[in-house]
Design a protein that fits this description.
12 helices; globular; about 0% strand
């Protein structure tokens, strides 16, 4: 095994001592802060739409962190795998809040919710991404890993599909061709490309 650079060694040693569970407590801070801003006028003239957007974008950002863990290890030797499960659950938490804000605070009318899911492609894609996240969140525990065996790893490759669908949902959601959603889509596609066997070999050499 090649010797890690000094900075990579320092980071790897430091992360070995830091457990993953504090991430769950820290993850509550951003949504609480956004809700506070929404209640106090800090999210502009359309606080519900802004809150919905912030939570959805936050979920997508955490998904990108999940996807970045393996390429980071391949490129630098820094191993953050121990945090991946927690980050995946945090991403699900943020996306679930994003959905709840849309359902409860934005649309509110049940019949309209179903019409939107069927008639608006960006909502259909976003809902499909969330549905795919449910089995991932439900099996993000040691018991499921033991019970499912090799099938667990295959199931959790759905994360790739979820990330792409989530970024496409963002691209379609905004009006016109805006740079920010395209950047997210590009980053996600780039991180997925780094998993291709031929690129893996280049990174490791």
């Amino acid at each position: 095994m090649p010797q890690l650079p000094p900075l990579s060694q320092t980071i790897s040693r430091a992360t070995r001592k830091v457990p993953a569970w504090p991430l769950y407590f820290l993850s509550v801070i951003p949504p609480v802060w956004f809700f506070f801003l929404g209640m106090t006028g800090g999210l502009g003239v359309e606080p519900i739409k802004a809150l919905e957007h912030e939570l959805g974008e936050l979920g997508l950002q955490v998904l990108i962190l999940v996807l970045a863990i393996t390429p980071l290890r391949m490129a630098t030797g820094i191993n953050l795998i121990k945090y991946r499960r927690a980050l995946g659950l945090i991403a699900f938490f943020y996306i679930a809040l994003h959905l709840l804000v849309w359902l409860i605070l934005d649309v509110q009318i049940v019949s309209q919710i179903f019409k939107d899911i069927v008639k608006r492609p960006y909502i259909t894609i976003g809902m499909a991404a969330f549905v795919l996240m449910i089995p991932l969140a439900a099996t993000s525990n040691n018991w499921s890993i033991r019970k499912l065996g090799p099938a667990w790893r295959k199931l959790h490759k759905l994360t790739y599909v979820v990330a792409v669908l989530g970024s496409v949902h963002f691209v379609m959601l905004v009006k016109g061709w805006q740079v920010e959603p395209l950047v997210y889509l590009g980053i996600i596609l780039g991180l997925l490309a780094l998993r291709l066997p031929q690129i893996k070999r280049v990174i490791r050499t």
